[in-house]
UniProtKB/TrEMBL annotation:
Cited SUPFAM superfamilies: Glycoside hydrolase/deacetylase
Organism: Aneurinibacillus danicus
Domain NodB homology: 10-188
GO biological process: carbohydrate metabolic process
GO molecular function: hydrolase activity, acting on carbon-nitrogen (but not peptide) bonds
Pfam families per UniProt: Polysacc_deac_1
Name of the protein in its database record: NodB homology domain-containing protein
PROSITE patterns assigned to the protein according to its UniProt record, in alphabetical order: NODB
Entry superkingdom: Bacteria
Length: 199
């Protein structure tokens, strides 16, 4: 499980949960315009049409990362390990097939993890992508200053920043990128692991 990425450089990672949805395109457009990359944790049942697949291919080509966030946004903890493995594997296989690319990262809904989640992510070869900065955009939709202050206060080199595909997050995103850049941070995509050798 990772919540930050050890780095000697002042680099941070922007992540967006719960897509794809009506704001995905806008978020990607803003990131592309600022030449920064994002990590997107998609819910399987939201990935439906050829349009989603096409957008995904475009995002991957531009250097963004797509990970999974289960099929139905299910809580994992307290479920038996086999069930957790199944939940991770089903969504990973489904989304991977839809986007035509392998998936390396998994994010647990609600951050609800237990020991079995760690084991399950290992067995499914998924990196469990946690975070160490919660933007609180899910909580403070009407209080953008609190979101900005919270990010400004919590961010450190290597931070993985949790955000969501929400309208107010789209509106704030250029300011968030500027805040991070002004603090001297580079914004990078979650690193793609080298492919494991086939057994
Ligand atoms: Zn979520």
């Amino acid at each position: 499980m990772i919540a930050k990425i050890p780095t000697s450089k002042p680099t941070v990672y922007l992540t967006f949960d719960d897509g794809p949805g009506k704001y995905t395109k806008d978020i990607v457009a803003i990131l592309d315009e600022h030449d920064v990359k994002g990590g997107f944790f998609w819910i399987g049942q939201n990935v439906k049409t050829e349009r989603d697949s096409k957008l995904a291919r475009q995002m991957l080509a531009n250097g963004h990362i797509i990970g999974t966030h289960t099929m139905y946004h299910e809580k994992l903890w307290k479920k038996p390990k086999d069930v957790q493995i199944q939940i991770i594997r089903t969504s990973t296989e489904y989304i991977s097939q839809k986007i035509g690319a392998p998936i390396y990262y998994f994010r647990p809904p609600y951050g609800a993890v237990d020991q079995n989640t760690l084991l399950a992510s290992k067995e499914t070869n998924q990196i469990l992508a946690y975070w160490n900065v919660d933007s609180l955009d899910w909580k403070y939709g009407d209080k953008p200053d609190l979101i900005m202050n919270n990010i400004a206060r919590e961010v450190k080199p290597g931070s993985i920043i949790l955000m969501h595909e929400k309208e107010h997050t789209v509106q704030l995103l250029p300011k968030i990128i500027k805040l991070l850049k002004d603090k001297g941070y580079g914004i990078a995509p979650l690193p793609t692991p080298k492919p494991a050798k086939k057994a």
